[in-house]
Amino acid sequence: MWEQEQEPERVQEREPAPVAIVGAGSIGAAWAIVFARAGHRVALHDTDADRAATALAEIESRLAELAGFGLVEGDVAAVLGRVRVAADLGEALEDAVYVQECVVESREVKRELFAELDRRTGPDAVLASSTSMIPCSEFAVELPGRARCLVVHPGNPPYLLPVAELAPAPFTAPETIARARALLSAAGMVPVLVGGENEGFIFNRLQGALLREAYCLVRDGVASPADVDLVVSAGLGRRWAVLGPFATAELNTRGGIERHALLLGPAYARMGAERGQDDPWTPDLVARVASSVHESLPAEEWAEHVSRRDRALMRLERARRADPELFTGFTRTD
Q1: Which end of the chain has the least Cβ crowding within 10 Å, N or C?
Q2: Please, are residues 288 and 295 in contact by the beta-carbon 8 Å criterion?
């Protein structure tokens, strides 16, 4: 039993597998940093040769900045040396066991590219798209190798926002998901599995909900764009750097998330109704969420977790005060 439990560590000690990135825009360059920083040899390809060369210079600059904050292990030159620009797509795909597509957000473009990736890669290579919105079924359903295709959508930039949404299609093989999850985890990412296919996955569904309301508040004369940004950057965003929305609700109200839903749920329902929404927080839904939240935040330890949240916020505030210029200039404060 002990030998079996130790096996993953022995596997992780092998040299990280070669990775290919197709598309050298900002996301492609950022993915190159993620994988090279984790020890992977990275082949970066773009149909625009000038863009690929520019991306390499950008990667070098970003790595130097990351190293200045202690976010690169080892020598920057060594990390950069793991990234090469491949003028030919076939050259980029050679030996790659994982391909991260980062081209334009177009179903047709992705459909054509994935057909080529399917033809030109080994049968065990994982083919992942960085698309922000498009389900995998809309560009890979007709491929012979569709079982090895899925969406891996990052936050931007992924070398600082490690969440990676794994959004498989119904035809994506379980081993494809497992291999993608293992590779991303070993590279320092935080994989989150999306259940079912939906436009926008999780990240952009949440972001879109906030943006829709932000636009409405400006339209209705409730707040200026600058003040909306200020409420998020000086308020909600600081808290969300430590906690997600459910954990926030749990710790914001004595009595936890169930009490929060009881007290504030009706008001949130009225706000939603103003926008034509009817998505009630039913008792069974609240109970299901609360059960999950209490696995990591037991109700009997509520005060302790509130204190821990506050200490985390204090550390963030200390960092802001230590380098105030770094945290100003994005939002008007007068």
Answers
A1: C
A2: no
Reported as a single tens digit per residue, the pLDDT across 196-212 is 999 999 999 999 999 99
Question: Binning pLDDT at 50, 70 and 90, where does residue 5 land?
Answer: very low
- Give Cα 245 distance to the centre of its chain: 16
43 strand-pairing partners: 20, 84
Strand-strand pairing, 163-168 and 149-154: antiparallel
Task: List, in sequence order, every residue forming a beta bridge with 35; answer none if it has no partner.
Answer: none
pLDDT in tens, 239-281: 999 999 999 999 999 999 999 999 999 999 999 999 999 999 9
Convert the pLDDT of each residue in 119-168 to its tens digit. Answer: 999 999 999 999 999 999 999 999 999 999 999 999 999 999 999 999 99
Backbone phi, then psi, for 129, in 5-degree steps?
Answer: -105, 140
Measured at the CA of 158, the angle between CA 6 and CA 137, to 5 degrees, comes to 85
Q: What is the DSSP letter of 171?
A: T
d(CA 257, CA 251): 8
Dihedral sign, Cα of residue 3, residue 6, residue 8, residue 14? negative
Alpha carbons 311 and 309: distance in angstroms, whole number: 5
What domains sit in the chain, N to C, each tagged with a CATH number? Answer: 2-193 (3.40.50.720), 203-327 (1.10.1040.10)
What are the CA-CA distances from residue 280 to residues 237, 259, 267, 269, 307 (Å)? Answer: 25, 16, 11, 6, 31
